[in-house]
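#onboarding

Welcome to the new folks! Below is a worked example of what a typical request in this channel looks like: someone posts a single protein sequence, and someone else replies with the predicted structure as tokens. Don't worry about understanding the tokens yet, we'll cover that in week two.

Example request:
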Amino acid sequence: MMSSQYQKGKFYTLPVLGIATEGEYCYFKVDASGKEYLIRMFNFQKEDEYVRNLKHLPVMAKDVHGDNVVFVQNFAQMFGKDYDPNTPHSFIVQRHISTLPDGRRYYDIKDTRGVPFRLKTGNRVYLQPYQRINCRVTASSINKLEVEYIPERRNSAEVVSPEKFLAESGLAPDTAELVRGLFLRLPRFSTAREYLSDGNEEWAVKAILSVPSVWKWGLNLKNKNRKKLLEAYQRLSLYLLEESRYLMAFSDSERANFQEWIGRKVEKTETFMEVIRLVDMNEHSKEIDRILHKLRNSGFIYHPEEKMELLVAIFSLYPNLLEERIDTILDIIRDTNWSRRLNSFKNAFRIFMLYYIKSHRDRVNREAFRSDESSNQLLNRMVRAIGYLLLMSSDRDRDDVDVPLYKSILYHYL
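Example response:
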């Protein structure tokens, strides 16, 4: 049985039968004990004559399911020579995987060519998705590469107190005191408070980035505080970005990362402030219908991503409005010719589909296998939403769509 011959996590060398092309992807076609397997090539390998002429391929058995084995390339043997252990190499953080009991963290990262690695950091290192970092790559054995995070050097800077930071940002005294109280009290700011007590100048950035997406906390605030805190958050963020020299204390790449992340937060905040304005005018429901009417009528909306972000923000506050219109939205997506659409349109509808799937998944899991009409309708909507999301995505398309995950969810519901 192959399951006894090939073991998970073990390394092998298999004969290459040829190169297979399926759509935009290329694969090594290998023989494993008389059974043919396809092993995905990276894009940068496609035109490499040396790689295409390999007679034997070093591989690892990533997983074993009975008689079936999932093989991947042996990164150490295939790519080890590309990394000088004395030279820092650039990587992009994909996602945080787990945190050990002692605080050390695991992250998935990729090099600039898309080769994935698993990085373990110390307990004082906090990385963000899309962050560019430098690492040292060493071969600990013939079959294993290890990556080591290299902290960037910073300019020396004064660690500003929260009171001084809030005062210099221009917040009104009563608002500054409200924000200060939340910072000192709420658990989500615990890491930022640790940074402050350790004399780490990054505490303010950590505090800004610790605030969850605005539509996740807007509902939990009284209306008067919600608007006040949104305005305060926007003011503090813009002060960091545009007016203070605070970010100049960090390295060029760190500063670029912080500016991008905080900039996204400001955009989300502005979207939510627009929702509050529409709600105050009792125009939020009409705005939904205006956007959907344009899509049905002409098939086009100006700045589609901004419009979809606005819909998501409204629906997050008023879920009943989503329930009333979800079938219309799914029908619009169904009737759209996506092969002729710009990426901005695809991105816009991905934003909405991701929101709908994530916000309804728990409910679907609870009700999916009941036989009443309401549950069947809910399941049908979820299947359509996931199907449309996958049609607008690909394995290499976007990091915010985990294609294999959503495929498995779809198969489960079907």
